[in-house]
């Protein structure tokens, strides 16, 4: 079996190639410095291609994407509060087509309590409601 050193030419030594004194060069990859192709290792890197970019949260109101809408707008709660305070007679149409006439007495995350004139109060689950409107308005 031959040694690996025997395969090198006799007139060139390992030190002559510079293998022993090579230094590992690792460029610092800063967040603001992404210009890899244009500058060489010996030259200082400069930002030539584009101006500094703002972070996603620091964008002005006119540019970029719109921010996501809030998870909960409280519009439903505001509507129920308004109808409860004014004691507005409401018509609640259920998914099966049944209409319930009454006033919203209180509400919850998952249900409404409807007070009816001359009849018992009802607790209605919100998923069972198709739509609702004020009793004086025309049905759609």
Q: How does this model look, in words?
A:
The protein has 140 residues and is of the alpha+beta class. Helix content is 11%, strand content 21%. The chain has a domain at 75-134: SH3 type barrels (Roll), CATH 2.30.30. It has helices at residues 14-17, 75-86, and strands at 90-94, 99-107, 111-115, 122-125, 129-134. The protein has a five-stranded antiparallel beta sheet. The mean pLDDT is 77.
List keywords for this structure.
rod-shaped, 5-stranded antiparallel beta sheet, 2 helices, single chain, SH3 type barrels, alpha+beta, 140 residues
List the helices and strands and how they pair.
Blueprint: H1 14-17, H2 75-86, E1 90-94, E2 99-107, E3 111-115, E4 122-125, E5 129-134
